[in-house]
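User: We ran a pulldown and think these components assemble together. Before we commit to crystallization trials, I'd like a predicted model of the whole complex to look at. Sequences follow.
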Amino acid sequence: MEREAVRRLFMQHYARMQRVARTLLYDVQESEDVCQDIFESLLRGETVLVPGTEERYLMTSVRNRCLKRLRHENLKKAPSPLPLWGSAPEEDDRLSDIVEFVVSHLSEREQRIFNLRFAEGCSYDEIAAAEGISKVAVWKNLSHAITEVKKHFNPKSL
Amino acid sequence: MNPLDDKKLFFDMQEHPENYSDEQLEAMMAELDKEPDAEEAWKKTLSQSLPCRERRSLRYHLYSLLSLQGRGRERVRIAAIFVAVAFLGLMSLAGYRAFSYKTTTDKRQRTTDTTAVKTERFYVDVQDGDTIFRFENIRLDSILAVVSRHYERQVVFHSKQPQQLRLYITCHTTQTLDEFVETMNMFDGFRIIQDFDTLHVESDEKKEGKR
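Assistant: Here's a predicted model for the assembly, 369 residues in total across the polymer chains.
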């Protein structure tokens, strides 16, 4: 992929990717590293993107890489915002399970907020504006959603 | 407050928002949503190599391991001592088979036997954020088991011979993986080749053949 095309994608999606990474990892430096690794892989030509799938690829990549790092940290019993699992091939299935759980067990508002933050990388301001609620209410909804997901998938972590 | 405390606070706020005031939650959200300087980040992406980020990641993980407070830190220390004792015990049980690749003559054999009875030591030292591993008379497979874990790489030995080689080496966590491999490849008897997430260890037959 040409450098200018990668740069355009970077400028367009970096802030959102950072938000997803920071929501999962918290650490600024680690979050930057995760995002930069993804773009470096594009610059090196290791990944070829099908037109129209760029955003989905980038957001999914950042989430998966963050979860991988958290899984590594989890070995040292560090806290994590989402349930973690053991091996890479299981990740997609487990992620589908989480999505299924979110849809069937959380309120519609919680589902929307969960999706806006973790999948779309929206800011708390954007989510609050979209939902017509305060930022603190967004945080509390998200917090409840995360707790429910963890309780269902990884009760020992609570 | 160190980065690990910040992280714990973040996760606690996420799990127990009822314990925090609205102002505290808003401050955390503002911190999380701070708009990054994309131009600056792009320049960093172009200028910083992957090994540099790997090194930072390694240092962070070590920092998180070593900066636990109070009882947690004490537990880690006790666990580290326990692991070190177990490690040395296992090393002793494994027997003394040193530098077998050099044993082409009886004289050389005696020399290596003398080396082999020296004590095996594995030290971990922390200085100004840098963690230093000192391996003294430790088998290559044991050294790579420790180091590869920190660089998040797998190790594959393609020959049994190098596994049993015993080395004296000091590794800094500020070293990149490339630098570590370069240093290791200065030793005779084996060659380490990086391939994505795997370190392949081969017997250095070419060098052997020249002797």
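The radius of gyration of chain B is 22 Å. That may be worth checking against your pulldown data before setting up trials.

User: Thanks, that helps.
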